Amino acid sequence: MAEKVLDIPKNINANHAETAPAYFSVWDLHAYYGESYIVQGISFNIHEGEILALLGRNGAGKTSTLRAIARLDDPMVTRGEIWLDHQHLHTMKSHEAAIAGLGLVPEDRRIIPGLTVEENLQLAQIVEPVGWSLDRIYELFPRLKERRKQEGVTLSGGEQQMLSIARALARDIKVLLLDEPYEGLAPVIVDEIEKTLRIIKAQGITTILVEQNAVRALNLADRAVILDTGTVVYDGSAKEVLENETLRAEYLAI
């Protein structure tokens, strides 16, 4: 098992742009915060409709990798490729990557003060391409429908998380990037979020989930990528990680 854990994923190769079979691919991604080398050659593939749990201890580079994928200015990407359905996102700015189909839900949720729930959703649909209709969003999130005229920042933590996910769906996204969606939420609310993510998966949307609650993330995910000091140390089945006590203890402290 130790050899497998430390292997570089075998479905990545040097002719990545032409031969990568996956729907979404990250290839040899490197990124820095100033002089700090935080993302050190990360590669992985995801097939359409999969949920991938991106895991690791604090400081392993999970959020930095997610931000680099989303093409945010920080961290600064110095090398690497990001492909979504044969589109090369690594040459795009963050807003261009969003238009191409990336939907980032950051840990702090970024609900806009002064706007109602509905206005937050409508603002997301100002620029084409538009995703789910408000009716469809409210069908998935009935709580948001009940509170659609309420200022978004006055919602509970769980409701704000729902609004942040709903706002991503209001765009025409292909890949949903979730950073710590369970943070600070009661278990019953986490159950609701997970039910929502399964529905989103059934719609064919691919999800990358960064989450400190590794056991819950692994139970939801199809596959897992584990990071350690900015590098991939495991890429494989989420079920296998759940069943491998040594792997969990070494890299996830569980």
Biggest sheet character: 6 strands, mixed
Quantity of strands, as a count? 10
Mind telling me which CATH architecture of the domain at 2-101 and 212-251 this is?
Answer: 3-Layer(aba) Sandwich
- Please give the order of strands in the largest beta sheet: 6-7-8-3-9-10
Globular, elongated, flat, extended or rod-shaped: what is the shape?
Answer: globular
Please bin the fraction of helical residues. 25-40%
Derived from helix and strand composition plus strand pairing, the structural class reads: alpha/beta
CATH superfamily of the domain at 2-101 and 212-251: P-loop containing nucleotide triphosphate hydrolases
Please give the CATH class of the domain at 2-101 and 212-251.
Answer: Alpha Beta
Order of helices and strands: HHEEEHEEHEHHHHEHEHEEHH
Query: What's the alpha carbon Rg, rounded to whole Å?
Result: 18 Å
For the record, give the distance between the C-alpha atoms at the N and C termini, rounded to a whole number. 18 Å
Mean pLDDT across all residues, rounded? 91
Provide the CATH topology of the domain at 2-101 and 212-251: Rossmann fold
Continuous helix count? 12
* Strand percentage: 25-35%
| Multimer state | single chain
Low-confidence stretches: 1-17
Protein name: Amino acid/amide ABC transporter ATP-binding protein 2 (HAAT family)
Keywords: Amino-acid transport, ATP-binding, Nucleotide-binding, Transport
Family: Belongs to the ABC transporter superfamily.
Domain ABC transporter: 24-254
